[in-house]
Specification:
With about 425 residues, the chain is of the alpha/beta class. The protein contains 18 helices and ten strands. α6 packs antiparallel against α7 and α17 packs antiparallel against α18. It is elongated and about 95 Å long.
Length: about 425
């Protein structure tokens, strides 16, 4: 079986095509079900954002699987497969995995290093897994991709300077506090920016995301997407008491948080500082809140200055990220190769154990006069001889994992030890 990715993104398709092919969140489960109906797709994860749609799959047959995905995209967009042909890209096996790693790391984004994509990758995997569409192979790869994304943002500056409003809000909050790891965050607003902000937070390691919105249903829907919780607007003041960061993203025409409201909240916080990032236009937060002791307020002007310096700095980090992607791909390949040789080693040792046990049983009558201690010595002796004989073949086979010798050695051992039944090797 092969891992494949078939997709379109901002580089390969114009906006009007992407708009037609994109799967909205409300239709994601239905789309996964439709793809899973294919006999050629054993596992499926669907990643759909404003800048890309990609179907990752475990394919039983490569070409038929690709065709099935293209037909799905054609149906989704009401375009013919021929109309999509010039826009669709396909990668398989290591190239598909490397592509996913690059996507998660942010180097394939329209805005290089943007923060939302890591949360979106994680969300796509978790939804597919929850719906029973991801199997065993894709979760392992996506889990590794999320690790690549986190490592890239930790070890390089690829995500240090945000360029979209939502990612800038999250990145600036993280920079101001040193890290968002383990922080409690309250998102005020569940519109487009609030949604992007919450998704970016999902990939930032926060301990809790709370969503408040004028429309309760929308708040609950967004909270479910990021595995957070929703609260009514009337409960915002109480929620702020335990919050480390307040992110304001509503489209309200009037101020939502007055200075007096925030002063009352701060009196209940036992001296703990509060960071407010207000990206709403008009502002959600009374300008007078800046004068409240213990409160730091950052607004859209702060974000603009933060974002303007980011793009060129991020581009300089791409080479470093690509090295991380290559290292992590090599590590995944080594782990996969080790899993592939494991069945041969297990079968070889099982065969040797069977022979040793049969021989001990065959000589059982001759050993019957031995004491329990003497019998234990004989058993230990046979085990020691067996382990010493199998040690070198085991070590050499493990060392061959990830090289062209692996299949040669595995086949030789299977033939020489007559290993007729070997478990199927695990997937990547």
């Amino acid at each position: 079986m092969s891992v494949i990715v078939v997709g379109l993104n901002h580089r390969t398709a114009p906006v009007e095509v992407l708009e037609r092919v994109t799967v909205p969140a409300s239709q994601l489960v239905k789309a996964l079900d439709a793809l899973a109906c294919s006999d050629n797709l054993a596992e499926v994860v669907l990643l759909s954002t404003c800048n890309r749609i990609e179907i990752y799959a475990r394919a039983t047959l490569f070409h038929p699987a690709v065709q099935d995905v293209v037909e799905f995209l054609a149906d989704q967009s009401s375009l013919s497969p021929d109309d999509l042909a010039n826009h669709v890209y396909t990668y398989y096996d290591d190239a598909a995995i490397a592509h996913l790693f690059g996507v998660a790391a942010g180097v394939d984004s329209m805005i290089v290093g943007e923060g939302e994509i890591l949360g979106q990758v994680r969300e796509a995997w978790l939804i597919a897994e929850a719906e029973g569409r991801a199997g065993s192979m894709l979760p392992r790869i996506f889990r590794h991709a999320v690790e690549v994304g986190k490592r890239s943002r930790t070890e390089t500056g690829i995500g240090r300077h945000a360029a979209s409003v939502a990612s800038a809000a999250v990145s600036l909050a993280g920079q101001t506090l040193g890290s968002l790891e383990g922080r409690r965050v309250l998102v005020l607003g569940a519109g487009e920016v609030g949604e992007g902000t919450a998704i970016a937070l999902a990939g930032a390691g926060v301990s809790e995301v709370v969503v408040a919105n004028r429309t309760g249903a929308r708040a609950h829907a967004l909270a479910r997407r990021v595995r957070g919780r929703a609260i009514p607007l009337d409960d915002v003041a109480d929620a702020m008491v335990a919050t480390d960061v307040l992110l304001c993203t509503t489209s309200a025409s009037d101020v939502i948080l007055e200075r007096g409201d925030v002063e009352q909240v701060m009196e209940r916080r036992d001296g703990r500082a509060l960071l407010i990032v207000d990206v709403a236009v008009p502002r959600d937060v009374d300008p007078g809140v800046r004068q409240v002791f213990g409160v730091t307020v950052l607004d859209i002007d702060d974000l603009k200055a933060f974002a303007e310096q980011s793009l060129e700095q991020r581009r300089r980090e791409v080479t470093k990220v690509r090295r991380i992607v290559a290292e992590e791909l090599e590590r995944l390949q080594s782990e996969r190769s080790a899993r592939e040789v494991a069945p041969v080693i297990t079968s070889m040792r099982r065969r040797a154990d069977g022979i040793r046990a049969a021989e001990l049983e065959r000589f059982g009558s001759r050993l019957s006069s031995l004491t329990d201690e003497q019998r234990a010595v004989v058993v230990a002796l046979t085990e020691g001889i067996q382990n010493k004989l199998l040690h070198e073949p085991t070590v050499r086979l493990k060392d061959s994992a990830g090289t062209g010798r692996r299949e040669l050695y595995a086949d030789a051992l299977a033939f020489l030890f007559d290993l007729a039944e070997i478990d199927d090797p695990p997937s990547p």
